[in-house]
Each structure stands twice: as structure tokens, then as C-alpha cells.
Design a protein that fits this description.
This protein is of the alpha/beta class. The protein has 7 helices and 11 strands. Helix 1 links the parallel strand 4 and strand 5.
Length: about 300
């Protein structure tokens, strides 16, 4: 594979050399970006035959030196930085959260890449089909796009630390599912996985089977899984409990039986009263980022 060309941050009319298209003419003006957030335009996805928006947040020190930075990739990228593009105008506030954590010396600086979804979201974020749902099963193609199309361009354009130990993948709901899938399918690329409210039961708990059978060397170095207690509920002895929390506990038990070592760390939480929405995930994001990145040494 030939080396990718550097990205043009300011694209012009037509298809740019780097594969990015100019921003969509209906793209709202940013209203809530904090720091250096760049809309790179729409990346032409050769694997899936579509286009998607990509945004990049650069740390405060990026323009002042030559150091390289770990990278966090986010699914559902339109929800990550800006209320103008976020679902129901509720964003994750990842840019503000990163700046706050860095200012408090809780993590080192991180580049964040927000990868927009497409109308094929269900297909792209699920590794197999599910008889209860229409579509699904193209997560392998989406992860191929991340690994072979997007990440090489990001690494060429920005001063990243491209190795597995410095690269995280974060998502919620089906984005949490595809994050878990990529942690196995592209374990040499994404070493740190944040799965918020993942859909564990898709395809008959297919993701659980993958983590139960994959070689230990393929499991993520750091794995965060969580769920809100108000996301769903079932009756159990003594009251009600979130069915999805039970799924988290079941998955954790599978992973823990694999024998995670100090080099393979599992964490997460059951958040009392939390719903399945952007506001809940934004509230948990500081804890996710602290867990995923607090142990990365500076260089």
C-alpha cells in the first residue's frame, strides 16, 4: 500500500488529493467547539462506497512543538464536539472534557478524531446480522476503513503516536459494540477500548463469543465497559434491575475468566439512574478518558 498523502485541512471545491471532500453546503456553522477543532470535510470511503464527515481536535500544545500524541477515535463523530451537529443538539463535550482533564493533570494531551456515521450506521456498527433487525453485518468493512483508509491519513497529517498502546477507540450503543469488535478484529491497531452502553445481545451475543474465544494476545490492553441502570429494566427477585446491566455483568464475567493480567486491564461502571442517551455518555466520558489514558507516559 502506498504512503498516504498529507491531509489538506482547508479543502477546495471538488475532490481533494487526500480523498476528503469539502464540507457539505448544509453543514451548520460550529457553535460549541473548544480549542483547535478542525472539520476535515467528508472522507470518501472506498470500502463502503459512501462519504462521512471527520473532525479532529488538537491539544493546546500541538502548535508549539514537535512532540507526538496518543489518539482517541470516536464513532458517531457528529455528536462528539458540537451541538450544531449533535443528535438532539446534545454533544459529548469531548473537547471541553479533554482540556479540563489535561489542565488538572489527570491525563496527558490527546488528539481526538471524531468519525461521523452514515445512513448505513446499523450495517457499519454490527459484526453480524440479527434476525430481529433489518441490516447489519458490515462492521468488518467499517473497521477496514478505519484501519486502512482513515488512520493512515491521520497519522500522515498529524503528529500522532500511531502504535497500538497509544490508540483508543470509543463509542456508545452500537458504537460501543463496534468498538468491542474492533478491539478483537484490529487488536494490533486499537489497544484501548471504551464501550459505553454497548449492545451486547446483537446477533445472539456474538461479541461475547468473540471475547470468550479470541487469543489473550488479541484482547485490548485497556477495556472500559459501562451501562446505566435506567437503560432498560426487568423484574428480578427483590425488585427490578436493568436487563442491560445484567448483560454487562455477564460480559465482564466472560472477560474476567480469560485471566486479565496487569497488562490487560478491565474497568467500567453501572451508573445509577443513567439513561441511554448523549447526556449520560457525556457525563461518563471524563471517567472513561481517565481510565484509558492516565497511564500513558509522556514523551
Amino acid at each position: 500500500m502506498s504512503a498516504p498523502s498529507a491531509l489538506k485541512i482547508h479543502t477546495e471545491a471538488g475532490v481533494a488529493e487526500d480523498g476528503f471532500l469539502p464540507p457539505h453546503p448544509m453543514q451548520p456553522a460550529p457553535r460549541s467547539w473548544t480549542g483547535d477543532v478542525r472539520h476535515l470535510g467528508r472522507l470518501a470511503d472506498a470500502t463502503l462506497g459512501n462519504t462521512r464527515d471527520v473532525w479532529v481536535y488538537l491539544p493546546r500544545s500541538y502548535a508549539r512543538g514537535t512532540r507526538r500524541y496518543p489518539v482517541a477515535y470516536f464513532h458517531d463523530g457528529q455528536n462528539v464536539f458540537d451541538t450544531a451537529t449533535a443528535f438532539a443538539s446534545v454533544e459529548w463535550q469531548a473537547d471541553e472534557t479533554l482540556e479540563q482533564l489535561v489542565s488538572r493533570h489527570e491525563i496527558r494531551e490527546v488528539i481526538a478524531v471524531a468519525v461521523g456515521n452514515t445512513p448505513l450506521r446499523i450495517d457499519e456498527y454490527t459484526p453480524v446480522t440479527d434476525p430481529r433487525q433489518a441490516g447489519g453485518g458490515r462492521a468488518g468493512d467499517y473497521v477496514h476503513f478505519l484501519v486502512h483508509e482513515l488512520k493512515p491519513r491521520i497519522d500522515a497529517a498529524f503528529r500522532t503516536r500511531p502504535g497500538r498502546a497509544d490508540t483508543a477507540l470509543i463509542g456508545s450503543s452500537l458504537g460501543g459494540l463496534v468498538s468491542l469488535y474492533a478491539g478483537i478484529a484490529a487488536s494490533d491497531v486499537f489497544g484501548r477500548i471504551g464501550a459505553l452502553s454497548p449492545v451486547f445481545d446483537w446477533g445472539g451475543y456474538d461479541i461475547e463469543w468473540r471475547y470468550a474465544t479470541a487469543p489473550l494476545s488479541q484482547l485490548p490492553m485497556r477495556l472500559w465497559i459501562d451501562m446505566g441502570t435506567a437503560e432498560d429494566s426487568v423484574t428480578v427477585p427483590g425488585g427490578t434491575l436493568s436487563r442491560l446491566v445484567l448483560d454487562v455483568r455477564r460480559f465482564r464475567a466472560v472477560v474476567e475468566r480469560r485471566g486479565y493480567t496487569p497488562g490487560l486491564t478491565l474497568d467500567g461502571e453501572e451508573t445509577t439512574g443513567a439513561l441511554h442517551n448523549e447526556a449520560a455518555w457525556a457525563e461518563r466520558l471524563p471517567r472513561v478518558l481517565r481510565f484509558l489514558f492516565s497511564n500513558i507516559p509522556g514523551r
